[in-house]
Design goal:
Layout lengths: L4 E8 L3 E8 L5 E5 L12 H53 L31 H7 L3 E14 L2 E18 L3 E6 L1 H4 L2 E7 L5 E10 L4 E7 L5 H6 L4 E2 L10 E6 L7 E15 L5 E7 L11 E4 L3 E6 L12 E5 H12 L17 E5 L2 H7 L5 E6 L4 H5 L6 E5 L2 E2 L3 H8 L7 E10 L2 E10 L5
Parallel strand pairs: 1-3, 10-15
Antiparallel strand pairs: 1-2, 4-5, 4-7, 5-6, 6-9, 7-8, 8-9, 11-12, 11-14, 12-13, 13-16, 14-15, 15-16, 17-18, 18-19, 19-20, 19-21, 21-22
């Protein structure tokens, strides 16, 4: 017999059995048997059991519903209280953080989750620089350089007239000239310089002075060559302080990109005092920016959001293989050089065949020659004519010319180019390197150029 079953019925003999099974929690036995006697029954009556079970389930259901409502009510109140307390804690942290005091999370002491301090102050950075650009653009110019490119193939020399583009900045105005600054490589080798202003008028410029090491040049335009409309359309740029720049500061590069005319690109200060070697081998310290600086931008302005020039762009630095990296000459380093070059007399080319004469026999010092013989880069003086301007100034055979009127001289072509601005009777300063006690020492000589025989 199973534990959860009740057997009732009649039992006759050992094998004849009749009856029914039903489930019950009781183990009871009720039967009439000829062999067995009578047993008492403990089976509760069916109607009473159903009534009792039905009433208990209803009460339990009602109780559960009441408990659920109470739990939801008190749970919601508890959650609301926790949110209010957390809000007060965060507000106190924000207040302490904004006042510069140490931030302490009061819940951390109780073993709760530690939260990062936050602040209510917000800095909004505007990307609209149109007003500033409109203000500074009249101080920017485009420059077109005419030059002659010479090449030698199988002993034959070929010349071709070409043009290059660059940019410039109007930095001053004298009683007779409008003065602009640009890069040395923008004007280097120019047979003619044409400047285009903000009103699209043009004028021819002349070189006042250059500094090849800093890649700077100052050029000038006679005021008499400018119309009243042009003079009223242009302005003088404001020079800033590159020493106060900070990483991440927003800047704008303006220039004649690719020779298409003035354009604007924006970016940030990526690095300061970046040591970079230029394409000519010289090394300097520059402002690095991710503002696009392409060929034609050279000599243009890198300006801050106040419209102040804080750098002079140069696409000649860093090479052509980089992307998102541009360089500019810091204006604080360029300013004293610009002021020195501004003080020079504006150079005007003399007529063909009327250049001054030094009276020396020259040879370019190539890299190979310099390596083999330990001679400095420049123009090697093979001989000096007796009684010539060079002889009277004290120039000696074996000297190496490295500068002529402040211009860096690395080849015979460099010397020819700079001398075309000086005629007979011009007084010039020439720097040579002279061998003394096994090493080369710098010597400065003053020459008065003579007439070419």
């Amino acid at each position: 017999m199973y534990d959860n079953e009740i057997y009732s019925g009649n039992h006759t003999g050992d094998h004849n059995t009749t009856g029914t099974y039903r489930e019950s929690p009781y183990q009871s036995y009720d039967t009439n048997s000829t062999a067995g006697g009578n047993y008492g029954s403990q089976i509760p009556r069916e109607p009473e059991k159903k009534k009792k079970a039905s009433g208990g389930f209803g009460k339990r259901l009602l109780t559960c519903a009441c408990l659920g409502l109470c739990f939801g009510l008190f749970g919601g109140l508890g959650l609301y209280a926790v949110q209010e307390v957390a809000g007060l804690t965060t507000d106190s942290q924000v207040q302490e953080s904004s006042t510069g005091q140490s931030v302490t999370d009061s819940t951390a002491a109780a073993g709760s989750e530690v939260k990062l301090a936050s602040t209510e102050s917000t800095r909004i950075i505007s990307s609209d620089v149109s007003d500033m650009v409109e203000e500074v653009m009249p101080a920017m110019v485009s420059i077109v350089k005419d030059y002659t490119e010479t090449s030698s193939i199988w002993g034959h020399t070929y010349s071709e007239d070409r043009q290059g583009s660059g940019s410039g900045i109007i930095v001053a105005e004298s009683d007779t000239e409008l003065i602009l600054v640009t890069n040395h490589h923008v004007v280097d080798g120019a047979t003619r310089l044409t400047v285009t202003f903000a009103d699209n008028s043009t004028a021819e410029a002349q070189i006042k002075g250059t500094d090849a090491d800093m890649d700077l040049a100052v050029i000038a335009i006679p005021l008499e060559s400018l119309t009243d409309e042009t003079r009223s359309a242009i302005t003088i740029a404001k020079l800033g302080d590159s020493g106060s720049l900070r990483l991440g500061e927003q800047v704008v590069a303006i220039g004649n990109a690719l020779g298409y005319g003035q354009s604007v690109s924006g970016g940030w200060i990526s690095a300061l005092n970046r040591e970079v070697t230029s394409s000519d081998g010289s090394t300097g310290y520059f402002i690095q920016t991710d503002a696009a600086i392409n060929p034609g931008n050279s000599g243009g302005a890198l300006v801050n959001l106040n419209g102040e020039v804080i750098g002079i762009n140069s696409s000649n630095i860093g090479g052509d293989y980089v992307e998102g990296i541009g360089f500019a000459i810091p204006i604080s380093a360029a300013r004293p050089i610009i002021e020195e070059l501004m003080s020079k007399e504006t150079r005007v080319k003399v007529e063909d065949g009327q250049t001054g004469y030094m009276g020396i026999n020259l040879q370019t010092v190539t890299e190979e020659f310099a390596y083999l013989y330990g001679v400095p880069e420049g123009v090697f003086i093979r001989s000096v004519e007796e009684g010539s301007a060079a002889d009277e100034a004290g120039m000696l055979s074996g000297d190496v010319i490295t500068r002529f009127e402040g211009e860096k001289i690395t080849s015979y072509e460099d010397l020819q180019e700079v001398m075309q601005y000086y005629g007979p009777g011009s007084q010039v300063t020439v720097v040579v390197k002279r061998q003394s006690n096994g090493s080369y020492q710098e010597v400065e000589l003053e020459l008065t150029l003579g007439e070419r025989p």
